[in-house]
Amino acid sequence: MLTTAPDIEVLARFGRALADPIRCRLLLALREAPAYPSDLADALAISRTRLSNHLACLRDCGLVSAVPDGRRTRYELADHRLGHALDDLRAAVVAVEADRTCPDAERDGCC
């Protein structure tokens, strides 16, 4: 199977989004259920400003959607298959040795 540039870009964006532990926690929380920013900030014990920056990154990466709900905005995974992908990644990562780190773990960036 031939890999195309769009395929590589999608995977790279997903990887950049997962490179930050807060964004990982956000995706896992939204995997469980859609949520409002104030609830997510409380659940993750981070400031709303910091949460907003991470949600913007995940939106820009195409991984979460902002859904207007009256005067509030609810966030959810952009596609239900992302929940399955997160489950598959979590299962696959179990095979990685706990004492190993990724050489690029120091770098942080957004999509």
TrEMBL record:
Gene Ontology annotations of biological process type: response to cadmium ion; response to lead ion
Organism, scientific name: Streptomyces xiamenensis
Signal peptide feature range: none
CDD domains referenced in this protein's UniProt entry, alphabetically: HTH_ARSR
Pfam families: HTH_5
Subunit structure: Homodimer.
Transmembrane segments: none
One MF term in the entry's GO annotations: DNA-binding transcription factor activity
The protein's name in its UniProt record: HTH-type transcriptional regulator CmtR
InterPro entries assigned to the protein according to its UniProt record, in alphabetical order: ArsR-like_HTH (IPR011991), HTH_ArsR_DNA-bd_dom (IPR001845), HTH_Metal-responsive_Reg (IPR052543), WH-like_DNA-bd_sf (IPR036388), WH_DNA-bd_sf (IPR036390)
Keyword NADP: no
Sorted UniProt keywords: Cadmium, DNA-binding, Metal-binding, Transcription, Transcription regulation
Listed NCBIfam families: HTH_metalloreg (NF033788)
Function: Metal-responsive transcriptional repressor for the cmt operon. Binding of cadmium or lead causes the repressor to dissociate from the DNA.
